[in-house]
Amino acid sequence: MSQECSTVEDLLPLYKNEALQANTVKFIEQHIACCEHCQQLAYSQPAPKPSIPFKQTLSFFHVIFIVLSFMFALNSSLLGNHLGFVVSYALFGCLTYLFYKNSWIVFTISFIPVFVWAIIDNVMNPLYIAKTSLSDIGTLLLGATFIAILHTIFALLGSAIAIILRKFFRKKN
Fold it and tell me: How open is the CA angle 112-114-117, to the nearest 5 degrees?
């Protein structure tokens, strides 16, 4: 096995995912055309699935967005200021999407804190659960899910606005 073979072998996953520049693709194809060992490698190995890199550390900004999410969850109410609730969650969803560029993160950051807040708020309310029966717990979870979904809808609308804004500004540049 030559030095070229080991280089081609290292580059094959990128070649199969079409993630190489034209000159490198040409080099690999020329080498594969005349090297039986590399031909077998190129056609026998399945193309690797592209992985989404995930940063495992929390930055200062991640913590800020998580804290903001919990603050919105604690301070918002569907029975209170409707316009403020809608605008604040839409703005929060827009900013979160612009920061993370991922709608799943917007969903998670807007759903989970509200869900947890709704459960805690209702468990602390003596009128809501007098005894802990299975139906009461089911009702509690269903109600918390409903409230969290309502909050998340407005955050996702804000996320959609952010996507439109990004596309609009990308076309201008």
Answer: 110
The total number of residues shown for the chain amounts to 173
Burial of residue 130, with CB atoms counted within 10 A of its CB: 0-12 exposed, 13-18 middle, 19 or more buried: exposed
How many whole angstroms separate alpha carbon 27 and alpha carbon 21? 10
Q: Residue 15 to residues 29, 40, 66, 156: CA-CA distances in angstroms?
A: 9, 15, 39, 36
Q: Please tell me the distance from the alpha carbon of residue 115 to that of residue 111, in angstroms, as a whole number.
A: 6
pTM for this prediction: 0.55
pLDDT at site 79: 47
- pLDDT, residue 127, reads 65
- Whether residue 46 is predicted with pLDDT greater than 80 in this model: the reply is no
Give the C-alpha separation, 88 to 63, whole Å. 19
Residue 15 confidence class, pLDDT cut points 50, 70, 90:
confident
